[in-house]
Amino acid sequence: MTSPHVIKPLSPDTFPAWLALAEKHNGVWGGCYCSYFHGDTEHTVKREHDGPTFKRRLVAEGVAHAALVFDGDDAIAWCQYGSPEELPGIYHRKQYDAGETNPAPWRITCFFVDRDHRRSGVAREALDGALELISRAGGGEVVSFPNELLPGKRTSSSFLHNGTRAMFEKAGFTFERHIGKSKTVMRITVPPATP
Description:
There is one protein chain. The protein is of the alpha+beta class. It has five helices and seven strands, in the order E-H-H-E-E-H-E-H-E-H-E-E. It has helices at residues 15-24, 51-61, 93-99, 122-136, 165-170; strands spanning 6-9, 65-71, 74-82, 106-113, 140-144, 174-179, 183-190. The protein has a seven-stranded mixed beta sheet, with helices on both faces. Strand 4, helix 4 and strand 5 form a beta-alpha-beta unit. The longest helix is centred in the middle third of the chain and has 15 residues, at 122-136. It starts with 5 loop residues before the first strand and ends in a 5-residue tail after the last strand.
């Protein structure tokens, strides 16, 4: 059985659907609007805008990327990705930088799934969609920082904003090391799409 879902990139055209999903969940993770990992740009300073406006401006500038999972006209999930310059604000940055010998041109920093579609594989669809969009953009190495779950320990979904090690391993990522208490560094090389 194939999924009825469609992957679309975050763009000015898909931003309204992305915003509707974020607003359905009160701005996501306490009003973040998926902007925590972004830095300022030459034209947009985070502290000068509310969350939706900041994100909209980054999308218009072409420096906010995500794979959106659509069910019909509705966005039901996303996986945020981009360059380290676009997404500098990772957790445990000093520890990550101190052990990084091969910086990747791409990173995946965050997922969000509509509460009505959780535990149905949609996050994995978003991850696969992000890897496909990276492939279309020329491919290259991708690094991410998913959580490693402890057996038998319940974890709030808000702490799983970057997915789980197990999901990334199933997608072909290789574990490199731990950072912080539960974060991992995982990597994959994505080939460029063939024309």
